[in-house]
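User: Sequence in, structure out. Go.
Assistant: Echoing your sequence, followed by the structure tokens.
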Amino acid sequence: MIVPAVNQQRRILPLRRLVLCAVLAVISALAPLAVASARADTAHPNLQSGDRFTVLLVGLDRRQPDESSRSDVIMLLSIERKTRTLSLLSIPRDLWVPIPDYGWYRINAAYLFGEVYEGSGGALARRTIESVFDVPVHAVAAVDFDGFVALVDAFGGIDVTVAKDLVDNSYPTRDYGFTRVFIPEGPQHMDGDTALIYARTRHPDNDFKRMGRQQNVIQSVRTALFSDEMILMFPFLFERFNEIIETDLTLAEQLILLRDLYLLRDVEVKARVIEPPLVYDYVTDGGAFVLLPDWELVRPVIGELFGSPGEAPELELVQ
């Protein structure tokens, strides 16, 4: 017997609501645990009341298993249910900053130094962001190339509108070679491999435009996460998430943030990129081409997105 599509839809809708209610019930039960589990050296947000919770999102340039790597993507995602705000800030990897206990380097070296010398790349990356931008960071979530592809494929792919044809004749492959890639303009449904190319390519324009594309991917993942099909899979996603994401988020925190993202699914994300004129080119005495922030322009952006003015590090510039 063939069940008409309309009847199938009627059956799916109650099931979807049942699954969602069950997930929200579990989240409510775990909420007190999440408050107690916040990082000890960072101010504790009250997740039950919807205080601001900020996560450092890191994309690792790790092309081979167990390879130590710098962070190719550095973003701050801030969620505040109380005021119904979502903020996303992209930080350029070439920003010249003081890394605690190591001195002045490009900011993308923080994760590498922590991974190699301290056993935790996320912890040092978080300390660096907090000290440079004066923004509390409550957790870190990092993903490498394989994890990113697996994450996007777990959603069944993502829908992205490509602003213009992207042609890269020197796209870096995982074996440290190069190849030509092309992504056409317009709406595209991307699998994990294509989304990785879209997020990584920079030769068609520059690093700043690439950061904008990376934000598009985050927005598309958010949309895919709360699609009808994915809501049914919520109970099965968390084990997979923790297999492919390196994070210090507890299960309780993951559930609560998922709930908050769902409740804020209709809220527009305030997204910014630290790009010129907020930063300008600089050459160190060692000949490194880096970026320096114009703090008079950066501070208002930090205040707009995270509710604090942000302070420049009171350190003498070391080249």
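User: And one key feature?
Assistant: Residues 303 and 309 are 4 Å apart (CA to CA).
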